[in-house]
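Example record

One chain of 360 residues, shown exactly as stored in the release files.
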Amino acid sequence: MTLTPFFASRHCTVPQIGLLQPADPFLDTAGEDLRRRIYLTTGQRGENLCLRPEFTIPVCLLHLSGQGDPARYGYEGTVFRQREDEPSEFRQAGIEDIGDPAISAADARSLADALAMLDDLVPDAHFNVTLGDQAVFEAVIRALGLPTGWRRKLARSFGSPDKVEALLASLSAPRERNNGHAPQITAALEQADATALADAIEAQMQAFGYLAAASRTPQEIAARMLEQAALDNARLTTEHVSDLRDFLSIKVTIDKAGSSLADFARRLDGDMELVLAAFAVRVDEIRAQGVDPAIVTYDAAFGRSLEYYTGLVYEITAPGLQKPVAGGGRYDRLLTLLGAPASVPAVGFSVWLDRMEQVR
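Predicted structure tokens for this chain:
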């Protein structure tokens, strides 16, 4: 069946997206993990090209090439990406909602549209939603008082339990004092004295004849060493490690999520009021869209490890299927990475049409 009437009912433009795409936007935003799974080739001018691995990035690039007004895009077509135990050529459909500043309403509409599309494809089937929130996780790690570098590492690992656990182990391990530096450098690092550290580095560079040929100044090297030392020295208390693990264990239906998060936030020193208020507004918007809260579970540990996700993330599953039939989320950072001069709000979802054929 065609989804054209569905897209029309959702006021979507349906763009033509070519099968052959420039590869660099995918590799620059999704990283080397994607390189192993997509089908790359080289154009006549030596440019990197690939068979279309998904629709979100091409739709975003199309949006940036236009007037930039808020728009909703629907798509349906074949994509090419290696998957474990599944065909590498498969069909996807979805909606990308770009430029709408009403964040909570757009998030709720995305989830409601995804469920409506699934119902359109297989009427009366039963689905469950797992919902996470990158913004809530980042607010929690800010409240723990970690240096910016550690917050970035943890944020990038959100949604990968093994990586988060490894970082927590590093943050709770005893600090190693022997750094192998000269005594003057070690002393300056211990005192976080940028001037003394730069002087000690300059003296050592002069002694070894490196100063004239150095690509960075002693001050630049000192700044980087102090930043790294702050990461090395940062440690979480046993209590804070326990707090973070307790947060990641929260898993409740969304109608109970607000109170669970509020109870947890009272244990922390940092202010989480704004992010929890935004979460509550989104829950209200989801209800207003007619989505049954009983089928939506908030899982504090659920996320995606792509850096451009900024808030809501979700996946939809069907009974009897191990893999999700749809997934979506908010990616306000993506259009900036693709060249937008300022942040552009955006949220969207994709449905794996081949998996929907197995839904009864």
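Notes: The first helix runs from residue 4 to 9.
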